[in-house]
Amino acid sequence: MTVQVVLVHGIRTSATMWRSQVEYLAARGNPVTAVDLPGHGGRMAEEFTLESAFETIDGAVRAAAEHGPVLLSGHSMGGLLCIEYVGAEEPPPVAGFVAASCTAIPRGVGLATYRVLARGFNSLPDRGMWLTDRMLDRILPHETRADFGAGGYALDAQDVALRSLSVLDLLAALRRIEVPLWFVNGQYDQLRVNERLFMRIAPHAELVVVPRTTHHVTVMRPRVFNALLEVALTTLEASDD
User: Fold this and answer.
1) What are 35-57's pLDDT values in tens digits?
2) CA-to-CA distance for 154 and 152, rounded, in angstroms?
3) pLDDT tens, residue by residue, 54-81
4) Which spans in 123-221 are helix H?
5) 3-state secondary structure of 182
6) Reported pTM
7) CB atoms closer than 10 angstroms to residue 230
8) Of 104, 133, 113, 98, which Cα lies nearest the Cα of 234?
9) Largest CA distance in the chain
10) Strand ranges (DSSP E) for 44-84?
11) 71 to 64, 65, 237: CA distances (angstroms)
12) Given the DSSP bridges, would you call strands 96-100 and 206-210 parallel, antiparallel or unpaired?
């Protein structure tokens, strides 16, 4: 059966950040669903809650699983949510998992600092979007620059979403994940802070560090990320023979 793919975006952005991957997967012949989490993209008016976020992921995964094995990929906040989801005590129908830019435990000083910085940006004129746009113009290639923010930026949901992540028990979830697992990080990603710990907890996982790349690995190096999806897809296809 054909591998189905579900993609979960990071904080503030939306499903549009995956356009390069959606195009690649469509050309390859793999059905793909890129979701908008509550409070993001086309669902900007909704309140973000962990319950509704997990319902969104689970709904997409179970619908896809009716047609074939599911490869789930999440970036940043989406990756953290997917770790918790895939590592549930009752495993969902996920055959493989690509976790991008999410090897950090969202608690303590690190999370508090991130929230303070986010609130600081929101207090700037234009909520700091002029600075965000300038940074993204510098680091993202022309082919994906527009995609990253095409669904809008979920500035109002950001602090609520960040605060909610502190209850995730990622280490317990990682211990329960038995499906093929790939961690993908940019070399300069700030969320590599617990990378070694995650690899100790999930020793069967593969770790790929993309050189000269920041936290935005999926859009900064889209061809590289697509090649890593190819590895995951080929692995699942081989196991299904």
Assistant:
1) 999 999 999 999 999 999 999 99
2) 7
3) 999 999 999 999 999 999 999 999 999 9
4) 129-139, 142-149, 158-164, 170-176, 195-201, 217-220
5) strand
6) 0.93
7) 13
8) 98
9) 56
10) 70-75
11) 9, 9, 11
12) unpaired
